[in-house]
Amino acid sequence: MKNAADQKTGELLPDHDLVGERPRKPTASERAIAWRNKKQLRAMTVNLPGDLLDEFHAKRKERGQTVNEAIEKLIRQQFLRKR
User: Contact, 50 vs 40, CB < 8 A?
Assistant: First the structure.
């Protein structure tokens, strides 16, 4: 603490408290929601038989695709194709 009559020594700490001045950081779930909204992604749950799912994972691993890439490609090329 500095003497009240001291005019040469600078203040080490500001007169005000810094708590509450910075915005709160978003949580991981808030960041994930923002990322999905930014990319306009929506979730979909699918129930498949186990043997079909095993074959699907084996085939997509051969091709080096992620699950999302493989499903997106199948939907675009097979389901949504123009006939």
Answer: no
